[in-house]
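Sequence in, structure out.
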Amino acid sequence: MSEQEPIQVPTPTLPTAVPPDSYDAYRGQGTPLIIDNGASQLRFGFSLRPSPAGSPEEYVINKTPHVASNVIARYKDRKANQPLLLFGDGVDAESGAKGQARTPWEGDVLLNFDALVRRCPIRAVWILTGEFSWSGYVYGLCSTQRAEQEHALDCAFITLGIDADTVDHPVLMTERLATPLHSRALTSELLFEQYSVPSLAFCIDALMSFYYRYQQPRVPFDADGLVISLNTASTSVIPILDGKGILSHAKRVFFAAPGIPWGAQQSTEYLLKLIQLKYHNFPTRVTTAQASWMLHNFCEFSPDYQATLRSLRDPNALQAAARVVQFPFTVPPAEEKTEEELARIRGAEKRTRKEVARDCRKDRMEKDALLEEGFDDDAALGETIKKLEQDVKKVRKKESDGQDEPMEEPTFTLVDVPDAELDEEGLKEKKKQRSSRQGLKRVLGRAGRKRKKRKEKNEKRRNVVMKRSGKRF
């Protein structure tokens, strides 16, 4: 089994200023305008585009729409001291704008219309270039003359190069299944009153995708099927009968619990949790954007889930299904050391080894000495020392009090017993008693010598006093 080449995780790049398209080919033509207002991305473009040179047709189907992240952030530039609007990928280019980013969607419902429309004028909408300098391309050329400021739609129309006072093109906009009437009414009001579009139609993107794939060469369209639409925050199932969507039988699928929809956002979060659980020691933090990229590129739907699991029992099939993902990693530079530094390191290691060997020999000698004195370990020695210290304290207390109370002398019953009459434990206890008795003798000898010296000193002092007083002792 050959190992697969690792797949590199795409590194984020800073957006650059893109000039608007030319509007000359569409001016006055009434070409339909298609807007896919998704929860994560905004796709827009004309339905037709000018045909390439040499083609007999004047216009062909446009299959390359503009794509931008459907997110907007209001940001104030401190250098220019003016409020700015960042749309799409430009939000990620400025760290201060990420915390203020907003999207028109709440889950899969279009609610935040203040992200599409602003009720106070703003001077301009800017984007960032790759060199972190302000680009001169402005997204809202007419914003100072309008009572309302459109964000996402302004970006779409100006990117397409529409420089007229009104958008004189029919608009086809996508929406989710069972869109609330409130959301559709506000969208219609915005497009008709603000942009003066001649007509507006709403459609479900999943049905349009089904029609586009299975329409040719069927005329009229009479295909049957079942559409499963995995949106950003919901999943819908729509039956198709005789080329028409039976919306009365369409359903929204709930996976986690009743009332909680499941979509690509929930799938991404679930995949991210699985990755964090399996690779909890991964040195690099896996972001939500990277998990979303892996979900869209490596995950797939299985027609028979149980059969797929059974096929993965084969090691070859499991190896073929594996995907190796390479995250960004910078190899730390290797430090080259000179001969003098290497010699210094070798010398330090040699000295360390000698010190360790010396400490080991010292520990062995101390342990052997303990065994010779009848102590098994340091704890037994500590108990004996503690007992002797208590005896010394009693002797000192007696000397300081000047009392001649008899002190209870320790008994050493095993010292005079022959070794042949003792077992192994008795021999160890005999060695301990002998050591204790020797220590006690040394303590008592020092105490006796101190008493003798003190007595002689007191006798000399008494003789001097009696001599001065004219009395002999």
